[in-house]
Structure to design on (361 residues):
């Protein structure tokens, strides 16, 4: 065997290697996207923390560096109405930390939200015409999806259950990311908010493969060639890798996050909502232990994040990770320490070796 045996994603997206660099808002850089794309995989640019002008600048920079297919990722959540009572309760819980850090608990906080896909972002898609547009937390309203499709972009969305995958196919996506419970960062759930019944990658991927006709991309707990090969055996056409790319020199993360990733184990991450108000997997730290990991007091996504910004900055200045979102999947320990381009190629090459070895045996 000299090539990947399932070409559905390769042919659909126009890429050479079935490795998708996950779009990680705040951590992914233009350089990471370009390196993954030039290695033959799919580079993914996250937009949730970018303004329209920042997104245009990033797309211009990436397009000037590579002509390879590009994935632009958006969040599809709905911004909740401002709830002053919920914010007051949250600020009251955080007040002792403010005092401890020498900060004023009553000081105004700037909004630190994630922006959902809207008409303004859609205009950027229409202008730059990325080959792939992906969504997290379901899909935006139908008129926006239709406008994206009119650009000839292929649409990918995340699903954490079979029901979400089927819903995604019915609503017009071209491929679905089956996101196992092991994955780092924000869960992609949108039909259910029950974290106790979320499914692991090994169980989720083959059931999604059986339930939909579109290609399936496996994500969650995959950080080396063995995981990539296993995903193929489960029926996936490609894999989406996040945490392993955080070890690359192209990643942009705080020093305390890099340290936590280096110390990450299979059993020291947890699903938490204390950082943004939405469940996400992070290495366990102080605020998760003391207020969570899942807290009913955290205000709705993405509004919980604003009040943590000052605490995060203060703690990081002292080299502490007490209030930093340390996004990580459960397989961080398996990740090679390579540049983004070398990682993309190594994952693919090692997977082929595993598959060839099993076949010959």
């Amino acid at each position: 065997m000299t090539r990947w045996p399932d070409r559905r994603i390769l042919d659909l997206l126009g890429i050479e290697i079935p490795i998708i660099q996950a779009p990680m808002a705040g951590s992914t850089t233009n350089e990471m996207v370009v390196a993954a794309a030039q290695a033959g995989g799919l580079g993914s640019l996250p937009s949730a923390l970018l303004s329209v002008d920042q997104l245009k600048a990033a797309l211009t920079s990436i397009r000037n560096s590579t002509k390879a297919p590009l994935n632009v990722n958006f969040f599809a959540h709905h911004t909740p109405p401002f709830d002053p009572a919920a914010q007051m309760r949250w600020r009251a819980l955080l007040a002792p930390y403010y005092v401890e850090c020498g900060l004023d608990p009553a000081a105004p906080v700037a909004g630190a939200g994630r922006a959902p896909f809207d008409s303004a972002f859609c205009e950027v898609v229409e202008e730059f015409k990325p080959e792939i547009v992906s969504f997290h937390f379901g899909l935006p309203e139908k008129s926006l999806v239709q406008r994206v499709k009119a650009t000839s972009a292929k649409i990918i969305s995340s699903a954490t259950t079979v029901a979400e995958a089927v819903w995604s196919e019915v609503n017009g996506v071209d491929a679905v990311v089956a996101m196992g419970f092991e994955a780092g960062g924000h869960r992609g759930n949108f039909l259910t908010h029950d974290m106790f019944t979320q499914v692991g990658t090994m169980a989720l991927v083959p059931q999604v493969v059986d339930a939909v006709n579109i290609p399936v991309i496996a994500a969650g707990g995959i950080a080396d060639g063995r995981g990539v090969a296993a995903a193929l055996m489960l029926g996936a056409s490609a894999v989406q890798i996040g945490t392993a790319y955080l070890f690359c020199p192209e990643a942009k993360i705080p020093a305390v996050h890099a340290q936590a990733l280096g110390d990450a184990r299979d059993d020291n991450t947890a699903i938490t909502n204390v950082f943004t108000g939405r469940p996400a997997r992070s290495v366990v730290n102080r605020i998760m232990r003391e207020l969570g990991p899942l807290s009913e007091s955290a205000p709705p996504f993405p509004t919980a994040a604003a009040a943590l910004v000052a605490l995060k900055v203060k703690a990081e200045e002292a080299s502490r990770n007490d209030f930093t979102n340390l996004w990580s999947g459960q397989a961080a320990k398996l990740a090679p320490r390579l540049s983004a381009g070398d990682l993309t190629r190594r994952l693919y090459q090692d997977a082929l070796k595993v598959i060839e070895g099993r076949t010959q045996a």
About this structure: The longest helix spans residues 340-360.
